[in-house]
């Protein structure tokens, strides 16, 4: 089925909007169209066995035996409908349309009915019936041919995604929160599965797949298709979790139709209500929403981080509240299968991120600690930079992170960075922010390049050598050192000093504050090079004024703040014999991990500030992945002569045009 057929069927379903106009707001059209499309799809799938199921349901109507397994067997699917009603019959009886449709939906198996309940379908039936539209809407959908032989499961996914995209546009939601472009998914699953091609073709292969932000299930379907293409006898069990009820319902219905267990798709927030706790998986992939805050589940996440630590999912650290991307990654890592002593087991993970998780957060921050945890455990296999304008909801650049706890021997201790930002073709028609797409040849090029990354990186003659770089894990680490310089002061009494004295709370609360003020005024204009000289002179002035010299650290600190003035040539202030650092001159430097910080200080800092030193107690270890910096290629500016020639040519052209105007 080609894309025009998908669009034609989606247009047919969306044409119901013409009936809804006036009684429904545009933003509510999808609340009718999406559940009716799901209902019509379920009906078309069950059509061949409908009468047989109805017969068995009639046989067991008054029996104490639960006929569920007999009805499933008769339907040939994991769901069924016991009624003899159809949408066409219901539409033919307008007066009883609401009652019959309610009976029809109630006759579905619990799993199918649960899907429709997530759409709040009963509420829409009442609303349509009150507006006199129900039988007309049903009639529209009876003409929609969604039989599997006409619309295969894979193609049905495109139709659902097109309807969701339109619904999102009408309601100002973000389509990208619900699904990912199919060609992006194809690249993602191929990168994820590529190293396991041989193992997947073994007889009796069984693989489990998880998407903790599964949307309509596009990624799960693609993984299922790819693995079964490699090995038709393989068993693929897919699992997911989704927060959006409409997307959850569509994903669940898709799995039912394909014969997968719909109970594997959990509803709810993956962070606060893990639907697959204590389970592990062979493959995990996700496209979590970019830059979405996790404030709603803050208490649950922080509690797990605090109480369970490394025994929980979020022991490595917590990112800033406005972006939960790295929480998803930690959640997935917690579900990796352990690697056995023979090297078997283990998992592979692929996740879509924007640029933020690469570098956001300095040394010691939650983000940096999460990157550190991943890299020091040697889980990050590679990062692939994708073209911008590839997703429906954002035009920014995106990245695939590929992780595994069973790296091949030649990949151990290494990370591949692959720049695929130029692998794209322009779309004939934009969809939201999506103006570019990956062609089949682009996907093939990227997958091949990723598989050969180590060899390409070592071969300067390879045409794509500049697109691949390989680093050691520790190359992304750095030491955040604190460079201190001594506090240098001179001491003086000026009008500003006297004003500061009157504003100092620590001094003004002293019983003899007035005496101090008078004493200091007598020294107006005085200057001292050292603190000792200044304190002796000030103390003598206070005594001569009839006062006593206050004692205590708070007074001395306040007095120094009043009469001390920073001066590069001033006296170095000391605490217990050691130079006191000047907070205003404090600086920070990032030193590559493994480099001696004292040697760095001597080479990079001392030539400019010889009296600087490192406060080793404040040194922190950080990790960041400056992807774009590693692939930056300097382009020298054009020669001035070339620019000058071009300007003169333009001036001549302008003069020529002006001459034509004045003729």
TrEMBL record:
Q: What domain of life does the native source organism fall in?
A: Bacteria
Q: Spell out the Gene3D superfamilies in the cross-references.
A: 1.20.1260.30, Vaccinia Virus protein VP39 (3.40.50.150)
Q: Report the residue ranges that make up the N6 adenine-specific DNA methyltransferase N-terminal domain in this protein.
A: 9-141
Q: Which InterPro entries match?
A: D12N6_MeTrfase_N, DNA_Adenine_Mtase, DNA_methylase_A-5, SAM-dependent_MTases_sf, T1MK-like_N_sf
Task: From the UniProt record, list the reaction(s) this protein catalyses.
Answer: a 2'-deoxyadenosine in DNA + S-adenosyl-L-methionine = an N(6)-methyl-2'-deoxyadenosine in DNA + S-adenosyl-L-homocysteine + H(+)
Cited SUPFAM superfamilies:
S-adenosyl-L-methionine-dependent methyltransferases
For the biological process aspect of GO, one term held by this record is:
methylation
The EC number of this protein is 2.1.1.72
**Record has Methyltransferase as a keyword:** yes
Positions of the DNA methylase adenine-specific domain: 154-453
The residue stretches assigned to a coiled coil in this entry are none
Sorted alphabetically, which keywords does the UniProt record give? Methyltransferase, Restriction system, S-adenosyl-L-methionine, Transferase
- GO-annotated molecular function: methyltransferase activity
Record flagged with keyword Nucleotide-binding: no
The family annotation for this protein states:
Belongs to the N(4)/N(6)-methyltransferase family.
Name-wise, this protein is site-specific DNA-methyltransferase (adenine-specific)
Species, as recorded: Streptomyces glaucus
């Amino acid at each position: 089925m080609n894309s025009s057929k998908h669009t034609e069927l989606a247009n047919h379903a969306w044409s119901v909007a013409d009936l809804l106009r006036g009684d429904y707001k545009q933003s509510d059209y999808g609340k009718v169209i999406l559940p009716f499309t799901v209902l019509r799809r379920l009906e078309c799938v069950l059509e061949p066995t409908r009468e047989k199921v109805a017969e068995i349901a009639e046989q067991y109507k008054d029996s104490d035996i639960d006929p569920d397994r007999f009805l499933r067997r008769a339907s040939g699917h994991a769901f069924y409908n016991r009624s003899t009603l159809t949408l066409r019959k219901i539409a033919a009886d307008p007066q009883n349309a609401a009652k019959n449709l309610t009976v029809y939906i109630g006759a579905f198996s619990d799993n199918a009915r649960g899907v429709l309940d997530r759409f709040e379908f009963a509420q829409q039936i009442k609303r349509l019936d009150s507006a006199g539209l129900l039988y007309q809407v049903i009639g529209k959908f009876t003409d929609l041919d969604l039989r599997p032989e006409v619309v295969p499961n894979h193609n049905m996914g495109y139709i659902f995604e097109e309807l969701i995209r339109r619904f999102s546009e009408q309601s100002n939601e973000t389509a990208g929160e619900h699904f990912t472009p199919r060609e992006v998914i194809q690249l993602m699953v191929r990168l994820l599965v590529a190293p396991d091609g041989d193992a997947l073709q073994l007889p009796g292969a069984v693989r489990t797949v998880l998407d903790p932000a599964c949307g309509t299930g596009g990624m799960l379907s693609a993984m299922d298709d790819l693995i079964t293409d490699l090995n038709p006898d393989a068993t693929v069990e897919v699992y997911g979790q989704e927060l959006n009820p409409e997307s959850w319902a569509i994903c669940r219905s898709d799995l039912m139709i394909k014969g997968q267990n719909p109970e594997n798709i959990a509803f709810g927030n993956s962070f606060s209500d893990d639907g697959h706790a204590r389970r592990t998986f062979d493959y995990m992939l996700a496209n979590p929403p970019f830059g979405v805050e996790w404030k709603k589940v803050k208490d649950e996440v922080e509690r797990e981080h605090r109480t369970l630590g490394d025994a929980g999912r979020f022991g490595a650290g917590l990112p800033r509240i406005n972006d939960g991307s790295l929480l998803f990654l930690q959640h997935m890592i917690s579900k990796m299968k352990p690697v056995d002593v023979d090297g078997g087991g283990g998992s592979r993970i692929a996740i879509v991120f924007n640029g933020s998780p690469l570098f956001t957060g300095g040394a010691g921050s939650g983000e940096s600690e999460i990157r550190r945890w991943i890299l020091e455990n040697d889980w990050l296999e590679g990062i692939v930079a994708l073209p911008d304008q590839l997703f429906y909801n954002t035009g920014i650049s995106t990245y695939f992170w590929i992780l595994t706890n069973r790296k091949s021997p030649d990949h151990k201790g290494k990370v591949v960075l692959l720049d695929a930002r130029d692998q794209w073709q322009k779309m004939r028609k934009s969809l939201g922010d999506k103006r570019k797409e990956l062609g089949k040849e682009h996907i093939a090029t990227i997958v091949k390049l990723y598989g050969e990354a180590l060899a390409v990186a070592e071969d300067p003659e390879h045409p794509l050598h500049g697109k691949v770089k390989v680093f050691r894990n520790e190359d992304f680490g750095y030491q955040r050192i604190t460079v201190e310089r001594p506090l240098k002061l001179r001491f003086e009494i000026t009008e500003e000093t006297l004003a500061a004295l009157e504003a100092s709370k620590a001094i003004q609360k002293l019983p003899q504050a007035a005496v101090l003020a008078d004493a200091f005024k007598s020294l107006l204009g005085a200057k001292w090079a050292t603190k000792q000289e200044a304190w002796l002179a000030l103390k003598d002035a206070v005594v001569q004024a009839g006062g006593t010299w206050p004692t205590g650290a708070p007074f001395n600190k306040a007095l120094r703040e009043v009469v001390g003035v920073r001066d590069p040539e001033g006296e170095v202030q000391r605490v217990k014999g050691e130079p006191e650092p000047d907070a205003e001159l404090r600086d920070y430097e990032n030193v590559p991990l493994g480099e001696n910080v004292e040697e760095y200080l001597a080479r990079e800092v001392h030539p400019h500030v010889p009296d600087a030193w490192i406060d080793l107690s404040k040194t922190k270890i950080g990790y960041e992945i400056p992807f774009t910096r590693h692939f930056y290629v300097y382009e020298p500016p054009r020669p001035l002569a070339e620019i000058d020639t071009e300007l003169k040519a333009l001036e001549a052209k302008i003069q020529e045009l002006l001459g034509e105007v004045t003729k």
